Amino acid sequence: MKVQVIYSSLSGQTKKVAQAIFDAVAAGDKTLHDLKDGEPALDGDVLLLGYWVDKGGPNAEMKAFLPKIQGKAVGIFCTLGYYADSSHAQKSLDAGIALVKEQNILLGSYVCNGALSESIIARFRKAGTSGPHSASPENELRWEILQSHPTQAELNLAAERFRERAYLYQKYRENGLAFSSIV
Prior knowledge:
- The protein is α/β, with parallel strands linked by helices.
- It has two domains: 2-114 and 152-174, Rossmann fold; 115-148, no CATH class.
- The protein is 39% helix and 22% strand.
- It has six helices and six strands, in the order E-H-E-E-E-H-E-H-E-H-H-H.
- It has helices spanning 13-24, 60-65, 87-98, 118-126, 137-146, 152-174; strands spanning 2-7, 29-34, 46-54, 57-58, 73-80, 105-113.
- Strands 1, 2, 3, 4, 5 and 6 form a six-stranded mixed sheet that branches.
- Helix 3 links the parallel strand 5 and strand 6.
- Helix 1 (13-24) crosses helix 6 (152-174).
- The longest helix has 23 residues, at 152-174.
């Protein structure tokens, strides 16, 4: 079974999650691919797809890429500079899932806190101190706290989630069982 981990990262946080997942997946045939290097051939049995959240969903490169995936077992993960247990985080993850769920089998998903890129923080600071993405004291504090994310614990959780799901999918196939979408 071949596993492809394909991601898009702005600040390097999604790349960290993708690398942790890649390292944990036990498949003998696996690849790690950054979309900034172009779109890979979709020849894996399992595709684990990661993006950074932009405007409540996948960033532009991943948003354009996801609908091209058909007939695969996929997992979706994302990072965002907000709280991973918030409704905003869930909606941002669901936006990515919506782009693949009709044509693929969903193995699972994961959303992770991630430090914002310096360029995005600079843009928010230029906007002043009012508005949802402004440089308000509350947002400045959140940005400071999230600079340490993803943590090792978050990376381990993402890695375990998809290591286990890829293994489970493989075992279903080996035993002639149909795997139903989890999400």
